Amino acid sequence: MAIDIVDSKTFIEIPLECIVSKLPVRRLSASGLKRIQEGMKRSGFLDNYPLVVVSLGDGTYQLVDGNHRYEAAKSLGFDCVPCVVKNELTEAERYKLALESNDAAETVVPSTMVTHAEFVWERSEQYTQEEIAGMLGWGIDKVKKYSALKQISPDVWDVIVPTFEVVGTASEDESGTPIVPIGTFTVGLLRSILDLVPEQQLELVKALSHPDKNQRISKGKFNELAKAYQARNEMKTYALSLLGDLGEPYTTQVTDEIYSGAYDSEWIKSQDVKNKEYNQHPKLDKLIKSVQEDWERKNSIHITNGNFYSEVSKIGDKTIDLILTDPPYNIANDREFALAGRSNISQNFGEWDKFGHEEFIMLFSVWACEWYRILRDGGSGYAFTSDRYLSYLCDALEQEGFEVKTTIVWHKTNPAPQIIRTTFQSSVEYIVFFTKGKDYTFNWQGNEGEMHNFIQSPLCGGKERLVDAKKETLHPTQKPVQILKHLMEVSSNRGDMVFDGFAGVGSTGKVAKDLGRKFIGIEQDETFFDAMRRRLTDE
Known about the structure:
alpha/beta; about 40% helix; five-stranded mixed β-sheet; eight-stranded mixed β-sheet; single chain
């Protein structure tokens, strides 16, 4: 039931100083206040438009309706004003009375979308939407729509509010400056920008309320641009979710391309469930793929000069698809054999290959533990080793949880000459193939000998063998690219991450780069590392 609005015959004169508080309903309208001031200057405070107040019981009052009249009277020096006193009203009833009084005085200071939206926002923490709807005489859905306008940026709202000021004529104010016609912004129109970022909201609102009507966009264009911005924001979210953290240059490239508008129509069609092209956006997917490939070309190789045991801890869990590594064999010694007509043969590979027997065996468990941590479920691994330590390595892998699938024998067709003629010539090395889980990559190469667990290949030589400035062999155990390429093609796919914690001069990394794989390599020897860096960065 409506609260009775002012009965002009029952007013009393109350000093302005006795009105000590106000019921906040709407902001002051500068233009409305100005018009009321001009009217009061001509005719005084008219008795048939009294203020509505509520007694606070101590001789003071709260202003419920007539804030513009109150401020005008105060600014003009009035001591007393005509008031109607209402008693025993709840706060909700006071708000309802104030709103109904405002509606009755629409020709003086009209209630606008701004008035109603701010009223809803300011009451939302204290009252339910149902209660606010009761105050306004609205349905709950209308309250929800006005409440949603709170998503508009405060800076944008400050642009919208002045457009509801009634100044001069509908086309220009007293100074001759064009203004936006009342009704330019509506709830329905503004709902189209709620999900846009503040910068986009501000751009569209300013364009629709531009003071020069020749530069002002239409409501149709406003909606069109809002829809385009919404699509671009969705595309950006989609693209960045696929790209991940590639770094600013790459994400900026994609964002700039998306916001050029070139993909708007494709995306909008792809979001229409009734359209045959629903969820299909090949142009956008092609853009994302091209940026990914560009990143991979420039950022797919990560190499570190450091100790395996400290550096491997920096690699994330389950981030590696394939381990392909040639760790120490612990076979180095100080022997050197002099041969007529050729270079001496040294078995002193370096301190990196010298350990005590028990110490070396314990390292296998460390390797297996770290390999298991960094390898994804369904990942695979290949580790070169010697016959002496083959069983120890297999045991460590199985104890960690790997499945040792097989041991591959590499037969070297040009082994080093056998100097000591009291045993067989050493012409084979071993490669342990292990997997983590059942669903691992295995690209079968056919039955024509390619998938035998026996590989024949010469030792690394010719142009492939890296040499130092003196043209001497740089790394004594450099592995042939031919073998590494075969294993990598069998157990990985393009884009997979390959890891070698004992990277040497980077042969595994070279193959990974050539095959379109990503690579993480660790090498502690500075000479070997420098050679790998030059090799993988094409220096």
